[in-house]
Specification:
The longest helix is centred in the middle third of the chain and has 12 residues. It is built from four helices and no strands. The protein has one domain: Homeodomain-like (Arc Repressor Mutant, subunit A), CATH 1.10.10.60. It is mainly alpha-helical. It is globular and about 25 Å long.
């Protein structure tokens, strides 16, 4: 997942849907639990 965030301009919402999440907030919460950082912070790096 971090690869899509780092290497594409695809919106986080679209990445969340690709990963099976209906709501971006659920994706963000699960992502932070797994990686210790939010998708938005990875994108801003």
């Amino acid at each position: 997942m971090p690869t899509l965030l780092e290497n594409t301009d695809q919106p986080i919402k679209e990445i969340a849907v690709l990963c099976g999440y209906q709501y971006v907030q659920h994706f963000t919460t699960a992502f932070k639990r797994s990686y210790g950082i939010t998708p938005g912070k990875i994108r801003r790096k």
